[in-house]
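Recap quiz, item 2
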Amino acid sequence: MRFDPVSLASGAAIAALGALLLFDSAGTVDVSLGWMAVALTGAVGAILVLSGLLGRNGRHD
Amino acid sequence: MNDDTPTIEGPPEQEGPPPNEPSESSGGPRRLLRSSGDRVIAGVAGGLGRYFGIDPVVFRIGFALSILFGGLGALAYLLLAVFVPTDADPDAVQRFGSRLRGAGFWRTVGLIAIGVLVLAGLCTLAGMAAFAVGLGWGVPTAIVIIAIGGLLILAAFRGGARWLIAPAVALAVGGGVAAASDLDLRGGVGEREYHPVSVRSIPEDGYRLGAGRLIVDLRDLDWGKHRVVDLDVSLGMGQANVFVPKRVCVSGSTHTGVGESEVAGERNSGTDVDHSPGVGSVATPRLDLDADVDVGQLRVINSDTADVDVSGYGPGPFHEDSGPQRAAEARACGTG
């Protein structure tokens, strides 16, 4: 079975964004638009960088 | 309707695959092909389901639902039907597509159109997430996003599911921005115009609108000489307009999450735009305003002649020069 690190990292980043949204919606934390923009661009940037570095050949058996 | 058409996952039952049939044994990259066996119209959903390894019904439901959101799904289906070949002998749609592809111009147009459609689809997803959060469904939306993230993590050990990344990011961006800007779309959608003629006719909890254009014209009120009117205005997304006579001092606090604020001649824009007009003023008549716009534009116009039908977007009398309003505010509040 092949392992895809890009999917793993993307899943973790997206789950983290979902958790941030969950905490904000539940009122546990109050995330400002500025910090949310930092989180979103950071996550998207990390996914793009990882995808670019590993490409399609990043999958391992 | 669902034939047992050989798929890329299934073992070959014949000596060789059909002309266009994708095969892992060939060692080549997987190709997206329309399904000749699992087809309702042109086999697009069947082909997508086989390519991504999920039930074609998911794509059929997606295409059907997307038709409700502007018909993008129908257009996407049409383009895929024309430009994606079938896994069997060319059908009429494929022959038509081949003729189009023969002309390079049309191929380019098709590719651009598909790109635009994909982008529009992602924007639609982001908008739907923002809408859901604005309606108060932030927690369920977050749970869906976390679940998709978990699915991606699990799929990473089974070859990955990179096609899920873009939709998941679109959902997270839409939901995240809506939550961070405290978008609140409860309160209805459309245009609301109020002209209260007495203070008692103003609702105690003020005026509220989810999305659209909200107009509160207080120039028909009997302001008298010493009257102080408390007013709450809340708008989720769109434009909120409050009109007062120029002899009325505007005080209180306003907040615009994302967008533009124009209060008694003071214009600011950006994120989290807060303004406190007439600070400390006890002049009368006075409007004590508490206004909140999540995304959009807030305008508090202190003018006797301003037209409520002029939206103020783009060049216009109130965008050209707001000096008269600032001067009127200074006079009315005694701060000039």
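The mean pLDDT of chain A is 86.
The helical segments of chain A are 5-26, 33-54.
End of item.
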